[in-house]
UniProtKB/TrEMBL annotation:
<keyword id="KW-0996">Nickel insertion</keyword>
<dbReference type="Pfam" id="PF01730">
    <property type="entry name" value="UreF"/>
</dbReference>
<dbReference type="GO" id="GO:0005737">
    <property type="term" value="C:cytoplasm"/>
</dbReference>
<dbReference type="GO" id="GO:0016151">
    <property type="term" value="F:nickel cation binding"/>
</dbReference>
<comment type="subunit">
    <text>UreD, UreF and UreG form a complex that acts as a GTP-hydrolysis-dependent molecular chaperone, activating the urease apoprotein by helping to assemble the nickel containing metallocenter of UreC. The UreE protein probably delivers the nickel.</text>
</comment>
<keyword id="KW-0143">Chaperone</keyword>
<dbReference type="InterPro" id="IPR038277">
    <property type="entry name" value="UreF_sf"/>
</dbReference>
<comment type="similarity">
    <text>Belongs to the UreF family.</text>
</comment>
<keyword id="KW-0963">Cytoplasm</keyword>
<protein>
    <recommendedName>
        <fullName>Urease accessory protein UreF</fullName>
    </recommendedName>
</protein>
<comment type="function">
    <text>Required for maturation of urease via the functional incorporation of the urease nickel metallocenter.</text>
</comment>
<dbReference type="InterPro" id="IPR002639">
    <property type="entry name" value="UreF"/>
</dbReference>
């Protein structure tokens, strides 16, 4: 009917709300090992930061969170509680440090609390016990009718913005330099999402030994701004 918002527009707005830095779940508090990469001297300037982010995007998100979002959103759509539990547990098992595990659990719990306050909580019969952030994110995307490709692009974009925000605070990185990196990495987001949509189960799993070492180092780092 004329005057009614199109369903795809509502889905897009719902995705923008979900990936907004203003979403009150505390994602700004985590650096995912990047702060330690600064402290250790692995990342010291703009080019190195771009290479670090590109590597984590391809060998981390592209092999782990993004293809898992595909499986989790499909499982929510199919009301497949067994698949939801399996993939949520699989994702928890890939977290190589206490901080990375804690981040996933805390962000998942925070997003779930927000959904409860908005009357958007997932069905209890389907929801894994203490679901992680990616699992809850997939529920919201399903509930709002976001297409799979856009779900992955939104998740990757939010992660990229957060990584650059971390660098602006801790590196420091100027905002103009952050925008240069955004321009450089936007096409890579699209490429990695396309790969993640086609990645088979046997090819899943992050390949990020450097990030794992940085994250473990961060647990005892003397001076820090972020929780990971």
């Amino acid at each position: 009917m004329a005057g009614l918002p199109a369903q795809e527009d509502l889905a897009l707005l719902g995705l923008l709300q979900l990936v907004s830095p203003a979403l009150p779940i505390g994602a700004f508090a985590w650096s995912q090992g990047l702060e330690s990469a600064f402290e250790l001297g692995w990342v010291t300037q703009e080019q190195e930061l771009g290479e670090w982010i590109d590597g984590v995007l391809e060998d981390g998100l592209g092999r782990c969170e993004l293809p898992l979002l595909v499986r989790l959103q499909q499982a929510w759509a199919e009301e497949d509680a067994a698949a939801l539990n399996e993939w949520d547990g699989w994702l928890k098992a890939t977290r190589e440090t206490a901080e990375l595990s804690d981040e996933d659990a805390r962000l998942g719990a925070a997003l779930l609390r927000l959904l409860r306050s908005l009357a958007l909580e997932p069905p209890a019969a389907l929801m894994p016990e203490t679901p992680g952030y990616v699992t809850v994110f997939a529920w919201v995307a399903h509930q709002r009718g976001v297409p799979l490709r856009q779900t992955l692009i939104g998740f990757a974009w939010a992660w990229l913005e957060n990584q650059l925000a971390v660098a602006c605070k801790a590196m420091p990185l100027g905002h103009t330099a952050a925008q240069r990196l955004t321009e450089q990495l936007r096409p890579r987001v699209v490429e990695v999402v396309a790969q993640a949509l086609e990645r088979p189960d046997a090819a899943l799993g992050p390949i990020l030994p450097g990030l794992a070492l940085a994250s473990a180092q961060h647990e005892t780092q003397y001076s820090r701004l972020f929780r990971s």
